[in-house]
Amino acid sequence: MQKKVCFIGAGNLATHLARELHKVSFDVIQVFSRSKESAQTLANRIGANYTTSVEHITKEADLYFIALKDSIIHEVLEKIDFRNKLIVHCSGSLSLSVIESYSENIGVFYPLQTFSKKREVRYKEIPVFIEANNVDNERFLVQVADTISDKVSVLDSDRRKKLHVSAVLGCNFVNHFYTLAADYLKAHDISFEHMHPLIQETASKAQEMHPFEAQTGPAVRFDRNIIEDHLNQLKDFPELKELYNSISRSIFERHQKS
Amino acid sequence: MQKKVCFIGAGNLATHLARELHKVSFDVIQVFSRSKESAQTLANRIGANYTTSVEHITKEADLYFIALKDSIIHEVLEKIDFRNKLIVHCSGSLSLSVIESYSENIGVFYPLQTFSKKREVRYKEIPVFIEANNVDNERFLVQVADTISDKVSVLDSDRRKKLHVSAVLGCNFVNHFYTLAADYLKAHDISFEHMHPLIQETASKAQEMHPFEAQTGPAVRFDRNIIEDHLNQLKDFPELKELYNSISRSIFERHQKS
What we know:
Chain A is of the alpha/beta class. In chain A, 48% of the residues lie in helices and 15% in strands. Chain A is elongated and about 65 Å long. At the A-B interface, α5, α6, α7, α8 and α9 of A face α5, α6, α7, α8 and α9 of B.
């Protein structure tokens, strides 16, 4: 599929996706980012041109990936004439219709993963969710996605948003608790590395049994002595103490209900 | 090391630890639990006797593992005459001194992991934290721990409690967010399996870079539009909505500070 692709945005998601499409021999002809460093780094890596000026975005691509921070999408897109080429955004949280005024051919290409520029990911295993404004565009985007992922689905905007909310819970919030644990251990001069096998096993369990079944710890048993002691251990960390309290209550209530 | 071992308690932790000690050829002679099913299942598995009555706990063991719910430890132990044999508890949250009235030889043997009876774990990778009331007992317990784990440390009660608090954050709370995500997806008829690669990558990242560096998502960028939209997506889940709000604030504040 020798399609010409342009990336508008060069952040974490764009970097991984552009490199992956390049690998399976899409012709990524240009990368746009307002950050010269980001645009150049990605473009060099995949042999593309780059620009930092909206006016110089190519008219020659068959497919434009819009991988911008949701809040600046309009500000950038309203300056571009896409000549009704296929444009897709990569956001879990935006409806397809958000880009409908910019082209007659629109879609969504949403890979459900957390991307950091420094880390490699196995793209084949990443679920990719497709949506488009007509059957032809949908079929085409599914084909594109199939070249890089084994887990391609079509999903409408409403349900994609639900998935995005749950990704925040299962990834961003989870990672924040790792950070809070690391902070807390550091304050007591204990290595966060001790936590690695526990972190791994917690994630592995949730993929092999329902996480509800996997729940352990003082809150699910409502072991009041331990909970009180832990709150006491957190007395110098008032914000964390408050979170500890509300999440313990949430755990207990969830397990009482069933 | 042909030492005779008795397990007081047959829950998740006891089950895994007893089986592991049995594997490296400790002689587990008896399992006590007030639940006949638990005692019998574990005892049968490792060729031990079992009892459900405190009075019949053996006097013949060299080492007693106390793996009971913290809240019932005293109620059980006060009925047993250990004849000053070495007794160790396996709790992250209890001080060593909690068992000092029951023997002159006491210790703590705390494996930092989440155990479910159904799942195998690689014990060699599990950090085990040892504490004892004298150097001989400490040395002996380190030797015992070394037979099953490659990650044995000596750690005092105060710092073990800190570790236990952080295990609650990095395991129990994390798993609860998996449960909340699964509940939320189920309510919208979306498979939780879509989340598996994201869950795995989130855990992998936190073991290879500092979780602070790994943080992604709307809260760290303070993307107010997405956060507002997500709160709206959660309007039928008021408790989850409240947690979403307070954790997003916590993420944002933590990343502002640095």
